[in-house]
Amino acid sequence: MPAGIIVRAQAKGWRETELVVDWLKVVWGRRRGGLRKRRNMLVLDAFRGHLTEPVKKQVKAMNGDLVIIPGGMTSQLQVLDVVVNKPFKYHLRKRYTEWLLAGNHALTPSGKIQKPAVRWLCEWILQAWADVSPESIVNGFKKCCISNAMDGSEDDVMWEEEEPGDAQPENVSDESYDSESGPSNAEDAAQ
Question: I want to staple 92 with a disulfide (CB 3.0 to 4.6 A). Which of 34, 62, 110, 128 is the partner?
Answer without folding.
Answer: 128
